[in-house]
Amino acid sequence: MELLALRTFEAVADEGGILAASRKLNTVQSNVTNRIRRLEEELGTELFFRSGRGVELAPAGRVLLDYARRMLSLERQTAAAVRQLGEDAGELRIGAMETFTALHLPSALRDLRQAHPTLELRIRTDTSAVLIDKVLAHKLDCAFIAGPVVHPALQFDELVQEELVQVFAAGTDPLLSPLILFREGCAYRARAIALQRTLGHTRTDTMEFGTLEGILGCVSVGLGWTLMPRRVVRQSVHAPRLAIREVPADIGVVPTGMVYRKTETPLHILETLAQAVVHAMAGNT
């Protein structure tokens, strides 16, 4: 029984159909269909009832799903244990928001690399929502995001409370300017929109950018305003042309930290990474 077949079976069961499962697995429908057919032939029983465009688990399928989840979980735990190889070799896959990457990650990764020079680091920057999905999908070992995070499969360790401030070009009135945001999924986005409503901004239109410096660059020339960590603004090359304004604590105070899966074999290197980040943040205060 191949793990690929079990992964495919699990996807079909979770998504409720062949097409949806093929999209989740980034493959064509025929591959999914063939894998399920071969699995049914191997087990000598029908796993799904076909109904219209969807499928429903047959009794044998419900039994297999429980065992498949356990086997796939064990496979992921095994991979994690092999990757860490103690703390001096292997691979660590880290995700981070762009603001966190700009502020804290470089010096933390430097310290981690100095302590464990043979450790292979893979870094991905994205929005908090995307990074959480990547951790849940076992594509990242951990991610540094804006919280809070409430999920039964995830552990969120708060490392710092980031202070967000309203940022606009010096000499301009943000009440008359559009809002400039990161794309959908950014943890600061909803807070910025809430602030816009709270303050009664006359302009409700928004602009989206994909990079931190792109946003601050546009804000610095008066194209709009944004919500950003105070420390990010202070360290930006655009800082001389920017003005900041404090916002209410329920919008401006954001718990920020590391999220990782809590149900599998722990990677001890994560504790080492968290300590390096805390040290880096202390140096940025």
UniProtKB/TrEMBL annotation:
Family annotation (SUPFAM superfamilies): Periplasmic binding protein-like II (SSF53850), Winged helix' DNA-binding domain (SSF46785)
One MF annotation (Gene Ontology) recorded for this entry: transcription cis-regulatory region binding
Alphabetized Gene3D superfamilies for the sequence: Periplasmic binding protein-like II, Winged helix-like DNA-binding domain superfamily/Winged helix DNA-binding domain
Keywords carried by this UniProt record: DNA-binding, Transcription, Transcription regulation
Domain HTH lysR-type: 1-58
Superkingdom field: Bacteria
Name of the protein in question: Transcriptional regulator
Organism encoding this protein: Thauera linaloolentis (strain DSM 12138 / JCM 21573 / CCUG 41526 / CIP 105981 / IAM 15112 / NBRC 102519 / 47Lol)
